[in-house]
Every structure is written in C-alpha cells, then in structure tokens.
Amino acid sequence: MARSTPVKKAWRSLIWLLVIVAGLGAINWGAVIWSNGSWAPKLALDLEGGTQIILTPQVANGAAAPTSQQLDQAVSIIRQRIDASGVSEAEITTQGGNKVVVSLPGTPDQETINRIESSAKLEFRAVLVSDAAPTSSVGDATASPSPSHDYSGLQSTPSVKPSNGSDDAYVTPLLQQQFTDFTCDQVDASGANVADPKKPLITCDDTGTYKYILGPVEVAGESITDATNGIISNSQGVSTGQWAVNIVFNAEGTKEFAAVTERLYGLQGVKNQFAIVLDGRVISAPTTNAVITNGKPQISGSFTQETSKTLADQLKFGALPIGFKVESKDVISATLGSSQLQSGLLAGIIGLGLVFIYSLFQYRALGSVTIASLVVAAVLTYLVLLLMSWRWGQRLSLASIAGLVVAIGFTADSFIVYFERIRDELREGRGLVGAVEAGWKRALRTVYAAKGVNLLSAVVLFLLAIGNVRGFALTLGVTTIIDVLVVVLFTHPTLQLLATTRFFSSGHRFSGLDPNALGAVYRGRAQFRTPVAAGRSSKEAVRRQTIAERKAAEAAGADSARNKGKKS
Amino acid sequence: MASLVSFGNNLYTGAKSFDFVGRRKIWYTIAIVLMVASVVIPIAKGGFNFGIEFRGGSQFQISGAQTLDQQPASDALRSVVPDGVAHVSTVGSDGVRVQTDQLTDKETLKVSAALAKAYGVSSNKITSSFIGPSWGADITSQAIRALVVFVVLAAVGMALYFRTWKMSLAALVSLVHDLVIVAGVYAATGFEVTPAAIIGFLTILGFSLYDTVVVFDKIRENTAQVGEGSRYTFAGAVNLAVNQTLVRSINTGVVAALPVASILIIGAFVLGADTLRDISLALLVGILVGTYSTIFIAAPLYAQLRSNEKSIKDRDRKTLAAREKAVGE
Predict the structure, then answer these.
(1) Which helix (H) or strand (E) holds A80?
(2) Looking at chain B from residue 137 to 166, which residues have their Cβ under 8 Å from any Cβ of chain A?
(3) Is A445 close to B9, i.e. CB distance below 8 A?
C-alpha cells in the first residue's frame, strides 16, 4: 500500500512523543523521590514571598562610609553572583543610601548567603613567617578584641627598605611581637579583610591551625579574567576527586604571577610558600614547585563541589568594593497576594476556552486537533518547567505566567499556518493525503524560519541580559522548542492518521477540510468539477479557468515532479 | 464562520483581493500619524509612569503590627496620596513593609501617622527610608545591549534566509512601528511601566518579527514564481501573498489576542489586579499592532523597496505588456 508509509511514520512520531513525555515525567518523578523535586512549579518572590536579607557595609575603623557608586557596584556584583547560581528572579536594591537589600524567593541556605555576603577579595601574598596557631581561650577573646599588650617601645618601620615581598626586613620587632601574641580568633577583629595591600599582614588560615606573617599583596584579585571550578587530576591525568578553582589572569596578572613564582621557587622553607588570601584568611598556602608563566594557577583547599563553584563565580564577577555583614534576615510575604495569581489563572483558563471555541468554529473537527495539540504542549511545558525549577531554581512570576499565556498564540499559530497550507493544497485540487504531505512541507519551512527568530531572541537575551530578562528568555526559548516538537511529533502525525479516516478523507461538511467548501476545482484522479462561477464577473471566471487549466496541465506530470517543480 | 472559509477561497484564487500594496500611501500616512502621536503624547504628558522598580521610592517598615492584612496599608496610603500604589508584604512574624513611589517629607509624615493608626502601633514603631531601584541601570544597559545584538543578528539571519536584505529592512521598520506605538499607548493611558511591562514589551518584539517572517515566507514563495509568462507583476505577487495569508493572519491574531484580552478584562477590570493590567495591555496592543503592521506596512514597504530594481522593472513591464495584449485580443 502506498499509504502505509505516512501512517507508519505518523505512529513512529507519536511513539517518540510518548517516550519524551514519559521520559520527562520519569526524570521528575525521580527528582521528587530522590531529590528535592516537586510536582508543582516553584513560584517567584511576587507570588510566594521569600526571604529578605539586609546587608550593612563593614568599614575599617575611621574609614569613610561607602559612596552610592560603591553601593551600586555591589548591587550589580551581587546580582551577577545570584544569577550565576540559577534563574531565581531575586530582587536587589539599596535602602536608605547605605544598605543593600536582597530579597530571594524561598528560604536560602547558608551557602547561598555566603555567596551573596562574602566580599571575595582575593590576594596573593608571599609567606614570611608561619607558626602553629596557639589554641585560643574563648574567655580571652570576649574580654577584649584588641590585644592589651604594650608595643610602645618596639620599632614599627623596617630599618632597611625591603627589596621584594619576601624580604625579612618587613618583619620588624613590632610585627614579630604582634605575631607572637596573635591568636586566630582575632582575625575578624584585626581587620585582616580590609588590610592595606602595601603592608605585611598577620593572619590565620581558614581552619585556624596556622598563623602567618605575609608580605604585601603581590597579585590582586582584580587581575583575574575568568575562574572555573573542576576536579584536580594528577600528573597522570587521573582524577583525585578533589575540587579546585582554576584561575585565568589577564596579561598584567600573568606577568606579576610569573615573577613571584620565579622568586619563590628559589627560596627555602616557609618562604617558598605562596599564600592565597580570601577575605583576610589564608585559604591555601601551597609550596612553589614550579614557575607558573601561563597565568593559569589552580587553587586547591578544602573545597566541595559547591564551595568551589561559589568561589569561582565570586572571583569571576569580582570582589565587592566593600565588605558586608548580614544585619537582618526575615521571611517576607508575597507582594501580589494569592488573589492576583488566581485572577491570572482564571483569566488564562477563560482565554483558553475562547481559543478552543474559536478553533472549533473556524476549523470544525480540525479544531479539535488544535485543542489536543495545545493540551500536549501544555503538558510538555509543565513538565519542563518542573525540571527547570528543580535543576536551575527557575520560578514563575506573574509576568512569566502571562508570558506562558501569550505563548498559546505562538503555539497555535504553527497549527494555523499548517492548516491553511493544507487548505491551499486542497484548493489546488489535491486529495487529502497528498494535501497533508504537500502542505506540511511548505508549512514546516515557514514554521522553522519563524520559530528560528524566536529562538534567536531567546538565546541572545539569555546570554547577554541579566536579572528578570534572563528568566523571560529561558521561558521563551523552552516554549519555542516545545512548539516545534509538538507540531512535528503530534499535530502532523495526527493529521496524517486522520487523513486516512473516512470522516476526513470524504471531506465531511464538519471536518473543516471539505474540498467543496474550499472551492477546489480538481478533485480525485482526472475528475473535474465545474467551478462555481455564479455571481462572478466574466473576467474573474476567465481567471479561474486559467488556474484550472494550469492545474490540469500540471496534473498530467508525475505527482512528485510537480511537487519539486513548485518548491524551487 | 463558514463565510471566512469562502472568504479565504476568494482571497486565495485572487477572486477577491484587497489592495494592500497599491494603497500603501494611505497605510504609511496612518502609521506616521500614529507614530508621531506616540512620540508627542509622552512628551506632552511628561514621560512615562515608571514604577518604583525603576525609580526607587519610599519604604515604611512597621513592627509589632496588630494585623498583617495588606489592605489597610493601601487604604492608609490612598488617604494621603489618592492615586498611590502600595506594594505591601509582611516581614517576619509581626512586621509589615510598605513600598510606594517617592513621597515628600510632609507626605511621609502623614502616611506614617495613617499607617500607625491602621496597624494599631505607636508612631515610633514605624521607620521610613528611601529605597533604590531594584531594576538598576545595569539591567537596563545589559538588556539594551542584548536587544541590539538580537536585532542585528535577526536582520542578518532574515537577509540570509530570504536572500534579500530588503525584507530585513521592511521587517525592522514594522518592528520599530509596533514598539513605538506600544510605548505610546503606555504613555497615553498612564499605566505604570513595571518590569513585567518591559517583559511584555520584549514578547511583542518577538511576536512582531515572528508574524512578519510567516507572511514574508509566503511572499518569498509567490515572488519566486514571478517570471516569464507570469500573470502577476512583482507588487501584484506580493499583494496576492498577503491576501492568501490574510485568513491566517486574522486567525492567529484572534487566537493570540483572546487569552490576553481575557486577562486584561477579567483580571484587571473585573478583579482589579493591577499587575495583570500592566502586562496584558502591552501584550494586547502589541499583538494587534504587530499583526496589522505586517500586512499594512512590512509587505507594501518590501514591494516598494524592490520595485525600483532593474530586473523587476523589466519583468513587470513584460507582464503588463502581455496583459495589455490579452485585453486587446
């Protein structure tokens, strides 16, 4: 049978669709059981509320309050950091000219708060002196944050000008004494995170087991152009399972870094060590085993996958210009309230009902294919939204729900373009099966071209824009891909199958594909119907005749040849 | 609606035909008038009504509130500023946060007193402060950069796909037309421009180009057949394509507009949901204007742009001569 091929193809497409739906459903089912997935999409700040974190700037004693420019810069960097962790539609603003307010949907964990709050000021300093940190007594620290020792008689400036960052001349008697008295619980109070980059620094490592005297800053975090996280592999290329942050320096940073490693490579003992200082604490002080000239060092430490990703993101977007601490953390309610969501959903449902009625009016039985296709598209969209909200923290705001309602129009247009093409083919006098195939070929090209534009805008906006615009782009991209999937894997196969049924192929009055109603001039093999010329001027009748003649001539040729000839 | 089917038949065969291309001067005039109005009205009315997300505003923080209802806050604000919009949310267990457009010092004191009364707290439990914009300049500049890149890429993509840059140009002109008019409607109605409205604006940008590409694809198909012995001039072929896709345009326009219109009418005017109103207005106007401009601006403009090409002029002359001859016989 000549007909078996489209029918077979149609079934194959429908089975593929079923596999995709079942697959998405299964993944989400797994996410619900083994992870924190859910069968309901997460809602954004405007609909669900969330947590409001107020950050106040931390300035060194006596330093000026941050400028509004610095605050804006901090807001921008915090936004990029949050965006990098997913599309959560956070809201970041300044308050009263000196605070930053971050509103996040849901309840953020400590890791998220660290990601926002820490200034991520990275410095590379040479180690001058290192010592095991004394176990500090808690009582001492609460008594007085600043050491109550008398340093008045000690020399505070180097006797000779230090020649490089590893020069012992930096270690003045005063510094030596301070270092001896230093305990690791003083790190925060000592202002190590806002220390002068040109001076030596006394600090501890982040676990509090070692304390150091470090030279001045040799390479600063500003020279970093990119940072990624990854698993360390050893010289044989075998993974060690340890997470690290890989840094790429700019040209200047590469030069500085090469110079320092060259110097340290020739030194012995602790002075061979290079301290990587993050927010005033040494996160790692590796020994220098080689001169690194390519500007791509790797920071290892006690990282997990999550913490290494956080640090990499922070380094990439730059350090905050000012240090912050969390002033308050409160649960906030939705600003829009549930009534708005209900109104939106109700309006959407009524709108969809109107679309259904209109489709049935316009396309009769064919309208039910539109409805079924929209339902399939809705199911797919819902499943994908669930997965996106599980993997990337995608959340639905009222605006994105409205966007989804508009997507109905985009999706339905694919069907409308397709149906109109089938009708055009019927008007040209094709049989229904042939009209479906020929109409499909032409419609698909149009659909691809038009959806291509949508996809392009989604990709460009997602890659380049920030904030809410990214969330919109993601939704647009996903619905566009789903549109194409549905029209290819559902609408067309369904029509291929319907075309073989008696109801449609006989051109039933209510099928929406009645050749008589469509004014077809050629029907079946070599069987002509007289064109209905009543009420038309003779000039128009002549014109119609020309079409019929042309069609007849074309019909004489092979079916496939005709098809190709017209396409070019 | 069977009439639309026979209407479609007549449009397809050319038995019935609207002269979209030939009467382009009328459409251009309408477009120019609308666009000028869309530019003049905002200037006359003093610009757009940007929401606090863009401009920042005043914030009141109430602690120890007796009730956590959102309505008293809106009422309190409206008693001082009649057309003020309050964004209310609860903070923690007994706090209420009210955000609104920036108020004067005098208004701030009055609102503060009204809020104290509404929530049954003494006035020292209310702190007011200025909040900065949450839609910062950085989001805007990034979004504009992304848009420029997209429009350039889309123009190049269309030029490659349709094999003529003139289609890209015509599509972009109608895109600008749509966006200017949507912006003009916002200024004229005084609806608040919120981030949601901006998202709606971006959706329209996509819809406008999408609709144009669908119709242009049919034009490409029809004009590719224009050649020796064709019954149509180039402009005639373009016009036929627009007529043949007219039923599609109407159907798509209606199907896209129905859900949005229902959001606008039911969601906003019946249930009084402001945010929904702000988004759906941009979308509804955009969908209607986007569908309209493809037919009345993009297609005629494209025909006009190509009509001066030498090869097309020659071909048209031959077609017309052949037609004359046919009439003469």
Answers:
(1) helix A68-84
(2) 137-139, 142-143, 145-147, 149-150, 153-154, 157-158, 161
(3) no
B329 band by pLDDT with thresholds 50, 70 and 90: low
Specify whether B173 is located in the same domain as B296. Answer: yes
Q: Which pairs count as long-range contacts for B231-234, CB under 8 Å and 24+ apart, including other chains?
A: B231/A543, B231/A546, B231/B319, B231/B323, B232/B319, B233/B315, B233/B316, B233/B319, B233/B320, B234/B303, B234/B306, B234/B307, B234/B312, B234/B315, B234/B316
The size of chain B, in residues, is 329
Instruction: Report pLDDT digits (tens) over A508-534.
Output: 776 776 766 666 554 444 444 444 433
Please say whether the beta carbons of A7 and A369 come within 8 A. no
Statement to judge: residues B127 and B253 lie in one domain = no
Contact across the interface for A79 and B136, Cβ inside 8 Å: yes
Phi-psi region of A88 (alpha: psi -120 to 50; beta: other; left: phi over 0): alpha
What is the domain range of residue B124?
57-131
Interface of B with A in 9-38 (CB under 8 A): 9-10, 12-15
Q: What is the pLDDT of residues A11-48, one digit of tens each?
A: 999 999 999 999 999 999 998 888 877 888 888 888 88
Lowest average pLDDT, out of A54-68, A171-185, A550-564, B162-176, goes to A550-564
Task: Spell out which residues of chain A touch residue B5, defining contact as CB-CB under 8 Å.
Answer: 517-518
Dump pLDDT digits (tens) for B251-269: 888 888 888 888 888 766 6
Residues 6+ apart with CB under 8 A from A153: none
When CB atoms are compared, the residue of B87, B91, B130 closest to A330 is B91
Last residue of a domain, one of B111, B131, B151: B131
The tokens of B150 are what?
């997209």
Distance from the Cα of B229 to chain A's closest Cα (Å) equals: 12
According to DSSP, the residues that pair with A231 across neighbouring strands are A243
Check: CB of residue A240 under 8 Å from CB of residue A232: yes
- Number of other CB atoms surrounding residue B276 within 10 Å: 26
Express each pLDDT in B61-108 by its tens digit.
888 888 888 888 888 888 888 877 788 888 888 888 888 888 888 888
CB contact burial B174-196 (16+ within 10 A = b; e otherwise): bbebbbbbbbbbbbeeebbbbbb
| A106-117 average pLDDT score | 79
Judged against a pLDDT cut of 80, whether residue A189 lies above it is answered with no
CB contact under 8 A, B134 and A417: no
| Least CB–CB distance from A409: residue in B15, B88, B287 | B287
pLDDT number for residue B167: 92
Put simply, the answer to whether A464 touches B146 (Cβ < 8 Å) is yes
Q: What is the pLDDT of residue A516?
A: 66
Q: Who has greater pLDDT, B34 or A274? A: B34
How many CB pairs lie under 8 A apart between chains A and B?
A: 285
CATH of the domain at B190: 1.20.1640.10
- Nearest CB neighbour to A468, from listed B195, B213, B265: B195
Residue A92, beta-bridge partner list: A102
Domains of chain A in start order, with CATH, are 45-116 (3.30.70.3220), 119-325 (3.30.1360.200), 354-519 (no CATH), 521-568 (no CATH)
Check CB contact under 8 Å for B142 and A465. yes
A81, A99, A333: best to mutate for the B interface, most B CBs within 10 A: A333
Quick one: pLDDT at residue A490?
Answer: 93
ipTM for the assembly: 0.84
| Residue at token pair 């977007």 | A317
